[in-house]
Specification:
Elements: E1 5-9, E2 12-16, E3 21-23, E4 28-29, E5 33-37, E6 45-52, E7 59-62, E8 65-67, H1 76-92, E9 97-104, H2 114-129, H3 136-146, E10 158-161, E11 174-178, E12 186-192, H4 202-212, H5 219-236, H6 239-258, H7 269-285, E13 290-293, E14 300-305, H8 309-317, E15 324-328, E16 335-337, H9 346-352
The structure holds (3R)-3-hydroxy-3-methyl-5-(phosphonooxy)pentanoic acid.
(3R)-3-hydroxy-3-methyl-5-(phosphonooxy)pentanoic acid is lined by residues 14, 17-19, 33, 113, 115, 147-149, 202-203, 295-296.
């Protein structure tokens, strides 16, 4: 059996959102964004790769299901994965085909960024397995091409993805603003209200909002302003100010979604109930002790600090529609795992009828 390499990456939650691309092929954003990389206990993607002359094409499985990446009819995202695979293999002079097996610990397409951790795990894994001498910054550019927000999962702690100016995208990469020890008390309490797949994919959404929303015109400069304020608040560890800008930014992005034609509405009645409850909590505390933020889904991410974890938990536990609560802290970014964690095993190969 061929050598197997395995890596793990985690999702990130955006404090300032990326919505709208100035280049859809390269995934170049209209604005910079900021995020927190999540810790790995509950939310992670593990990905294994092996290269073998016995394979007749590149093969990929996500959550046990074979993906159509090699055929010309493959979905756009799958084509990107194939492009990245081909690009990195070529760079390493690797002629053998790849078997890639990836597994998420959380529901795919539910508003918890599975594409971000998946793309980050794959890019990081390929760079290491193929022994490409690449800087994290360069790997983040590769991950960005598969799924924009993935470039931010290339680092632990608090991360910024700078918009960049160049048309080739080489200056649109992520970097760390602060490692997790700068503000270790930060937490993301994820309230799962709907584990189902989202109705409008983020790739469709980015394009449709840009094309049809009149409100979107103001979005890039508003987001840049939020990004500067949050970067500054992070440096000063000013939770009150950071929380205000996190909530404003989520609301601002979702406003442009609602203004899209036909409208995109990821937020549900339960999401709105959570929004009101966080405002009540903050009003009662006399300052912002928690901030809600929503990606392309109805699940709430509530950013808070250790000190107020119980207040947020108590608030959520009173809500019947909240099906599951997952607490995460800041993670360390992607890392290689040992053989014991490999997803490509003799048992897996037998089950799928593959030989490597
Ligand atoms: O990376 P994509 O194309 O799945 O877009 C993600 C967009 C949001 O999750 C809504 C915001 C963000 O910055 O993560």
């Amino acid at each position: 059996m061929a050598n197997v390499y395995t890596a793990l990456a985690t999702p990130n939650i955006a404090f300032v959102k990326y919505w709208g691309k100035r280049d859809g092929k390269l995934n170049l954003p209209n604005n910079s964004s900021i995020s927190m990389t999540l810790s790995e206990e509950k939310l992670n993607t593990t990905t294994s790769v092996a290269f073998s002359a016995k394979l007749t094409e590149d093969v990929m499985f996500i959550n046990g299901e074979r993906q159509d990446i090699a055929s010309p009819a493959a979905a756009e995202k799958s084509k990107f994965i194939q492009d990245i695979l081909s690009l990195m293999k070529e760079r390493a002079g690797m002629r053998e085909h790849a078997l890639v097996v990836s597994q998420n610990s959380f529901p795919t397409g539910s508003g918890i960024a599975s594409s971000a951790s998946g793309a980050a795990a794959l890019s990081f894994l390929l760079a290491n397995a193929l022994k490409l001498d690449m800087q994290q910054k360069e790997i983040s550019v590769i991950a960005r091409r598969i799924s924009g927000s993935a470039c931010r999962s290339m680092y632990g702690g608090l991360v910024k993805w700078q918009r960049g100016e160049l048309d080739d995208g080489s200056d649109s990469y992520a970097f760390q603003i602060a490692d997790k020890d700068h503000w270790p008390e930060l937490m993301d309490i994820v309230a799962i209200v709907d584990p189902g797949k989202k109705k409008v994919s983020s790739s469709e959404g980015h394009a449709l909002t840009m094309k049809t929303s009149e409100l979107y015109e103001a979005r890039p400069r508003t987001a840049e302003r939020h990004a500067s304020a949050i970067e500054d608040a992070i440096k000063r560890r000013d939770f009150n100010e950071m929380a205000y800008n996190i909530m404003k930014d989520s609301n601002n992005m979702h406003a442009t979604m609602l203004d899209t034609w036909p409208p995109i509405m990821y937020l549900t009645d339960v999401s709105r109930e959570i929004i009101y409850s966080v405002h009540e909590l903050n009003t009662a505390a006399g300052e912002n002790i928690a901030a809600y933020t929503f990606d392309a889904g109805s699940n709430a991410h509530i950013i808070t600090t250790e000190k107020h974890e119980k207040d947020v938990m108590d608030m959520l536990k009173g809500m019947e529609a909240v099906r599951n609560i997952i607490s995460a802290r800041q993670g360390d970014g992607p890392r290689m795992l040992g053989d014991g964690d490999a997803l490509i095993t003799p048992e897996f190969l037998r089950l799928k009828g593959l030989e490597i």
